Amino acid sequence: MLQKREKVLLLRTFQGRTLRIVREHYLRPSVPCNSPLCPQPAVCRNDGKLLSSDVTHYMIPDWKVVQDYLEILEFPELKGIIFMQTACQAVQHQRGRRQYNKLRNLLKDARHDCVLFANEFQQSCYLPRERGESMEKWQSRSIYNAATWYYHHCQDRMPIVMVTEDEEAIQQYGSETEGVFVISFKNYLDNFWPDLKATHELCESILQSRRERENESQESHGKEYPEHLPLEVLEAGIKSGRYIQGTLNVNKHRAQIEAFVRLQGASSKDSGLVSDILIHGMKARNRSIHGDVVVVELLPKNEWKGRTTALGENDGESPSEPMPTGRVVGILQKNWRDYVVTFPSKEEVQSQGKNARKILVTPWDYRIPKIRISTQQAEALQDFRVVVRIDSWESTSMYPSGHFVRVLGRIGDLEGEIATILVENSISVVPFSEAQMCEMPVNTTENPWKVSSEEERERKDLRKTHLVFSIDPRGCEDVDDTLSVRALDNGNLELGVHIADVTHFVTSHSYIDIEARTRATTYYLADRRYDMLPSILSADVCSLLGGVDRYAVSIMWELDKTSYEIKKVWYGRTIIRSAYKLFYEAAQELLDGNVDIVDDIPEFRDMDEKSRQAKLEELLWAIGKLTDIARHIRAKRDRCGALGLEGVEVCIQLDEKKNIHDLIPKQPLEVHETVAECMILANHWVAKKIYESFPRQALLRRHPPPHQEFFSELRECAKAKGFFIDTRSNKALADSLDNANDPNDPIVNWLLRSMATQAMSNALYFSTGSCAEEEFHHYGLALDKYTHFTSPIRRYSDIIVHRLLMAAISKDKKMEIKENLFSNKDLEELCRYINNRNRAAQHSQKQSTELFQCMYFKDKDPETEERCIADGVIYSIRTNGVLVFIPRFGIKGAAYLKNKDGLVISCSPDGHSEWKPGSLQRFQNKITSTTTGGESVTFHLFDHVTVRISVQASRCHSDTIRLEIISNKPYMMPDTELFQQSSLLLKSDLVKEVTRSMEEAQLAQEVKVNVIEKDYQKYCQTKGRSLYTLLEEIRDLALLDVSNSYGI
Amino acid sequence: MAGLELLSDQGYRVDGRRAGELRKIQARMGVFAQADGSAYIEQGNTKALAVVYGPHEIRGSRARALPDRALVNCQYSSATFSTGERKRRPHGDRKSCEMGLQLRQTFEAAVLTQLHPRSQIDIYVQVLQADGGTYAACVNAATLAVLDAGIPMRDFVCACSAGFVDGTALADLSHVEEAAGGPQLALALLPSSGQIALLEMDARLHEDQLEQVLEAAAQAARDVHTLLDRVVRQHVQEASILLGD
């Protein structure tokens, strides 16, 4: 039975009156205690997460500890934590939603050993607040009382440690009950976790930053920034149209001065603004940081400023015409994350004055302001990349203050830099834990994985009846997809796409599922990859390798024998045995009728001549038929008025996602297209199916049509070369891009295509419940519905789609739906998360490529090394320079025509350039540099020039590539090697060379290492690795080529 | 109020109830001697008083009389001190008129009006404290009062409200939950037959979820019935002891 109590609250209304509110409060005899020691688990109704039973004590943090040290409580090493409801509510009320959500996620996370105890709803734990008792005292008293009850509830078998920051509470309760200890947090860490160094350091740094803040609030500084307005005023202002809400985007190249606010949704229509709003200067930015959701007030028109169009740090250029300018009046949501920073070097520290306990550190990301850290370890941390968090930014302080969290690695060291890229993109890739690996199936030589008889009964067996084969790049390990085609008895054809059945092994809400969801995708960096699933799944049990039995999810279409019209479709779980694991080149050779390649296919090697011939015939027929079908499917879609952008789209996507070293889209083999077409077909049909069954909670992928205004640059550029680009529809765009081909210069077309790609918006995952059906359209593929289904091994979205499809099938059969599906709201949130992770994956890939490029050029002397001089194409004109693309290395960068001393470039008749005094004049499609001597040189769009590549080293940020025009004539390559080939070769070359030189450097250091070893061990970051693993990773790179080829 | 969590991850509501649990209900019948029937009910902190007069001759204009059944006249009012803010609530304002009409519809469906043609039944309800679910409290109080007056009814009319938060239906909303602005459904049920006397909702709710919310409200109404039934039995027992049977 519930007991009713009443709580009296005194609230203050906005008008300032006090309101007496009586609220009911119901108590119950039992709430779940979630302890394995519970004497009556049935009464407590413990379901869900339990505390683990192998702890020595339970820890109950006081409200203050939860508020201030939540970061430390997040360490998975701290076990047996019971959060009291009182403490959670204190966090919710006093620390805001962000912190509270962190706590909620912690409680939900099955990997952390912590539970919530709803003490305020428990009959004997609830204490009413007494008259005159302060909130803080009452909270501590409630928590202590609940701790005592909990101790007795577990029959005094488990000692309980209550951790508090309140000295009085320690004195008062310290020795009141035996078995319930009350100590301070610092004490607790010292006594119970003396070995957990990271927590101590974190605790120390939090304490220190708090002390600093207290000191500061006592000293009354002059204010650096205006105060933020209260939330009610902001909300009212946004509604009335006085203020505008948007996300702050800092300009990377002028982080100190320029930031833009991108408008969100409706507000842009109301205010009649088309462009973004410029925020000029740090003062107007008013303590907001890149990514925050801010509220902006527009300045009067006479104070509007223009944005700068000049390149880089050269100041004093005339800005463009004024645009809406504003200032930040409040921040709605702070998007602070972990930041990688660098401590200043010794000389800089001295210049910062004696007061060196507060140190200004420089974030790796240009867009983030410097952060004040108070630490004594500054000198020791000088040569390292370090992670910090921002605590607060008071209006009295020029810079935000933060605290030190952990060390990543040495500056300039490959591992350290890679870790930096990962942290900056919020990617966390710890090795899979033991609990996660325990859920994995076993497949060893002694104990091979086998198809279970139970599954054999439930699944359709295709092992005997179908010729299944896969086509992948050479050396691919994770084969997600296989194909089959055969003639049916009634003369029709049956086309099958069989996808690895990952969801069979990854059950919903298991540890591995949670981990995969957090990773969301496999991350491919330039020299390595971080798998979403453990290799036992990704490369073995799930992978549809040749000659072994595997579970699959299949889609099979029955096609008319002549028109290839789809008559029937079947979805379901199957067992398959892939007969051949082909690679693209081999498949293409077979398709072309060139059977010599057979020797390269391992499956054929051990066959005698006769059976080999028969098998080969069979395979040849299948591949031929498959290509034929794919051709027809595409042709039919074109005929039906469907827009044929796919070919182009594939290419563009390739360029965008792929390592940019593959610049020129390889004329894709027809086999590539065949496989891609089958996958698109499968994805499309699955999308249709799951949308039909779950109209409000299906995960689909849409590609919104691009904004026409973004195409203006593309049109201008094309005009310069005399092409007309029609951007009105995707079909028109594709056609006109095909036509815009300069026979003398293939790069032109490629550049135009990449510009078109840049103008397009990204494809996104979404939940069908939160979007109107018209918006489902996929612009690039010209399909009304599309999803991702074919690569569950490396994308989490595909796993969800698999579960949806399985649920849809069982719904059709009127069976109970086994899977618990996400609701629309949860799914939408998950989609947003996956989209975000995909972006992070792309960024990290790009950044790691740039890192390798820089490392490659770093030790080359630009003056002498022949490789540093290359041919470049101008693809954009700015007021003081041009943007140049170097096809050979796939590098894009800026080249100045005016240097820091104000000298401009001039070219002698033989093309060689010098710096001379003069002026620049910019036109629509060209830029002219005139020296005082009257010589002038003009650079047009798409001109070929010779550039010298050098590396601009930077201590705090990533190194950047610098380009310098040394001649206005195209660079003649000394070797006659084919352009395309060289660039392709170079990619792996470059990575290999860089990794090897790093390795050598490390070997050379070996002697010295003994001394440094300690440091390495201390931070566990940099470890010497064997050459073998390095080479393995280089081999993995091959995966890159493929994996995106149909990953539209 | 934006930060308030109506349903925690552990399944508790703000006041400590779980999703399907009712607030504490206490009720008494026969609180006034001069009326034909009267009752007082507390549902949590919502308190309502109902009195019933009739069936009697039509008062006022005779033209209102119905030839085949009795006229049910309902009036609703709420006390100045019933909410957090003290506020004078004149008779005949829009809100109380609407509530009166709803009560009338409810009781026309439940009372066997055809037994008393050309007569009138008056039901007056006053809310003394409003803490969510006023309509439900009014209906439940009026049911007891009608029973007390001995007017024949088809069945008890039991009412309860229900809301919808994060995919879960909440029964018997309190004021805090109502103020959060989610959908809110009021249901008056004739429990033994399962017929619905009145169903009202004035917010948007997806069709698919309606059934779930409706079921939660119906279950809550059945629970209310059990409690009211107990109150009536006890009242009758006490009365019979007083009469000396």
TrEMBL record, chain A:
Keywords: Cytoplasm, Exonuclease, Exosome, Hydrolase, Magnesium, Nuclease, RNA-binding. It is an enzyme of class 3 (hydrolase). It is found in: Cytoplasm. It holds the Pfam family RNB. Its EC number is 3.1.13.1. GO terms for cellular component: centrosome; ciliary basal body; cytoplasmic exosome (RNase complex); cytosol; plasma membrane. GO terms for biological process: mRNA catabolic process; RNA processing; rRNA catabolic process. Gene3D superfamilies: 2.40.50.690, 2.40.50.700, 5'-nuclease (3.40.50.1010), Nucleic acid-binding proteins (2.40.50.140). SMART domains: RNB. It catalyses: Exonucleolytic cleavage in the 3'- to 5'-direction to yield nucleoside 5'-phosphates. GO terms for molecular function: enzyme binding; exoribonuclease II activity; RNA binding. Its cofactor is Mg(2+). Residues 459-811 form the RNB domain. Coiled coil: none annotated. Belongs to the RNR ribonuclease family. Component of the RNA exosome complex. The catalytically inactive RNA exosome core (Exo-9) complex is believed to associate with catalytic subunits EXOSC10, and DIS3 or DIS3L in cytoplasmic- and nuclear-specific RNA exosome complex forms. Catalytic component of the RNA exosome complex which has 3'->5' exoribonuclease activity and participates in a multitude of cellular RNA processing and degradation events. In the cytoplasm, the RNA exosome complex is involved in general mRNA turnover and specifically degrades inherently unstable mRNAs containing AU-rich elements (AREs) within their 3' untranslated regions, and in RNA surveillance pathways, preventing translation of aberrant mRNAs. It seems to be involved in degradation of histone mRNA. This is DIS3-like exonuclease 1. It comes from Monodon monoceros. The lineage of its organism: Eukaryota, Metazoa, Chordata, Craniata, Vertebrata. The gene is DIS3L.
Automatic annotation (TrEMBL), chain B:
Residues 21-152, 155-219 form the Exoribonuclease phosphorolytic domain. This is Exosome complex component RRP41. Pfam families: RNase_PH (PF01138), RNase_PH_C (PF03725). One of its GO terms (cellular component) is nucleoplasm. Residues 196-223 form a coiled coil. Component of the RNA exosome core complex (Exo-9), composed of EXOSC1, EXOSC2, EXOSC3, EXOSC4, EXOSC5, EXOSC6, EXOSC7, EXOSC8 and EXOSC9; within the complex interacts with EXOSC2, EXOSC7 and EXOSC9. The catalytically inactive RNA exosome core complex (Exo-9) associates with the catalytic subunit EXOSC10/RRP6. Exo-9 may associate with DIS3 to form the nucleolar exosome complex, or DIS3L to form the cytoplasmic exosome complex. GO terms for biological process: defense response to virus; DNA deamination; histone mRNA catabolic process; maturation of 5.8S rRNA; nuclear mRNA surveillance; poly(A)-dependent snoRNA 3'-end processing; positive regulation of cell growth; rRNA catabolic process. It is found in: Cytoplasm; Nucleus, Nucleolus; Nucleus, Nucleoplasm. SUPFAM superfamilies: Ribonuclease PH domain 2-like, Ribosomal protein S5 domain 2-like. Belongs to the RNase PH family. One of its GO terms (molecular function) is mRNA 3'-UTR AU-rich region binding. Keywords: Acetylation, Coiled coil, Cytoplasm, Exosome, Nucleus, RNA-binding, rRNA processing. InterPro entries: ExoRNase_PH_dom1, ExoRNase_PH_dom2, ExoRNase_PH_dom2_sf, PNPase/RNase_PH_dom_sf, Ribosomal_Su5_D2-typ_SF, RNase_PH. The keyword Cytoplasm applies. Its main location: cytoplasm.
